């Protein structure tokens, strides 16, 4: 076992190495004559500036007794109604042109990077749930007694694992999505679920086959049928053994979700590209995006480790 002093020495060496790495990144930035502007990044994460409300057409400003602002269009049509605002810019009877600021809303709101992070989390969570369902289903089919089920499962696993995820995203969105009228987000979830499900199926299959055949025989000798023995005896043992590889696969799922940006889903990666073009701070943006991906995958890894320890303690 490690002594207390050796652990402190290890922590100290770790801090020295990390400081050296951070210094190396900073020096590299100086050598390429790059000026860091982290202050440009903050509004794209949490924006505290007032939000302008602009006119959508030419017209005349009208303010009623309740303070509701409406822009009556010059050439007919429905008026633009603004009932919630913090600062009124337009005045009664003002001539308004399209694009003019007519009111402002104070307070903070999420910037594009934060919104992209939320899309990535939502996309990954939904894909994770469906991939578990597909993985368990096809994993059980891989060890089923019927040959037809095993053949179907092998075909699914080999086809999906043998083709790139990017190609599968295009096929799901442009072909399957067109047939079933799927929106971009649903197509992205479907593609990620199908792709990850194939790997989960192999992990589940390996976990089931790692359990001694005697466990199934003992359960059957106690009067359980095949399904009951699989649910109550084999699967609980297989779950404990598959948690580490499942954790790695789910972390890959979160990182692979960045590929859905090719079908115009504004996830964290696509939001990062858009912010780079507007902030002119590419290194700051991509370091932030990488850090946010690391945060999400780190939380998932920690949660699975906690679950693994709890299951180990229940033995």
Poorly predicted tracts of residues: none
Instruction: Tell me what portion of residues adopts beta-strand conformation.
Output: 5-15%
CATH superfamily of the largest domain: MetI-like
CATH architecture of the largest domain: Orthogonal Bundle
The shape is extended
Major β-sheet, in short? 4 strands, antiparallel
Strand order, main sheet: write it out: 5-4-3-7
What is the class of the largest domain in the CATH system? Mainly Alpha
Number of strands: 9
Q: What key phrases describe this protein's structure?
A:
3-stranded antiparallel sheet; 315 residues; transmembrane; 2 domains; alpha+beta; MetI-like fold; 10 helices; extended; single chain; OB fold (Dihydrolipoamide Acetyltransferase, E2P); AA_ABC_transptr_permease_3TM; transmembrane helix
């Amino acid at each position: 076992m490690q002594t207390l002093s050796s652990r402190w020495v290890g922590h100290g060496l770790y801090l020295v190495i990390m400081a050296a790495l951070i210094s190396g990144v900073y020096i590299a930035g100086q050598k390429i004559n790059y000026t860091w502007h982290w202050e440009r990044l903050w509004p794209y994460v949490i924006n505290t500036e007032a939000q302008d409300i602009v006119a959508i057409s030419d017209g005349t400003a009208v303010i009623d007794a309740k303070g509701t602002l409406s822009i009556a269009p010059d050439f007919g049509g429905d008026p633009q109604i603004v009932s919630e605002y913090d600062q009124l810019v337009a005045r009664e009877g003002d001539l308004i042109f399209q694009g003019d600021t007519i009111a402002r809303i104070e307070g903070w709101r999420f910037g594009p990077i934060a919104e992209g992070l939320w899309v990535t989390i939502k996309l990954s969570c939904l894909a994770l749930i469906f991939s578990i369902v597909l993985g368990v289903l096809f994993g059980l089919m891989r060890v089923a007694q019927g040959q037809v089920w095993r053949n179907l499962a092998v075909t699914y696993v080999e086809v999906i694992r043998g083709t790139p995820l990017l190609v599968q995203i295009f096929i799901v969105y442009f072909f399957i999505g067109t047939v079933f009228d799927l929106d971009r987000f649903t197509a992205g979830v479907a593609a990620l679920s199908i792709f990850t499900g194939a790997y989960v199926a192999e992990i589940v299959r390996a976990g089931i086959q790692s359990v001694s055949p005697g466990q199934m025989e003992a359960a059957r000798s106690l009067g359980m049928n095949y399904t009951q023995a699989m649910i109550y005896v084999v699967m609980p043992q297989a779950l404990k053994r598959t948690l580490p590889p499942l954790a790695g696969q789910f972390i890959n799922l979160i990182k692979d979700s960045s590929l859905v940006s090719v079908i115009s889903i504004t996830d964290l990666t696509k939001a990062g590209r858009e912010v780079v073009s507007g902030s002119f701070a590419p290194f700051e943006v991509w370091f932030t995006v990488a850090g946010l991906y690391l945060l999400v995958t780190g939380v998932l890894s920690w949660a699975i480790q906690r679950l693994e320890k709890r299951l180990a303690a229940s033995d």
